[in-house]
Amino acid sequence: MAKKSKGNRIQVILECTEHKNSGLPGTSRHITEKNRKNTPDRMELKKYNPIMRKYTVHREIK
Questions:
Q1: Which residues contact 52 (CB under 8 A, 6 or more apart)?
Q2: pLDDT digit string (tens) for 33-42?
Q3: CATH code for the domain of 44
Q4: Domain range spanning residue 44?
């Protein structure tokens, strides 16, 4: 079921950049929210990648 929009808050998907370049099968993605007004550019967070078993940089995808 889709989530209703609460003003400027939107749901974004973060994808692992290291895993994407490594050639390993699968993907590591996390879903979070951000305030579009305060953070207009793409987000970058360090999140845990269970396939690589370490913390890596996850970047927002569209």
A1: 16, 18, 19, 22, 24, 28
A2: 999 999 999 9
A3: 2.20.28
A4: 9-26+40-61
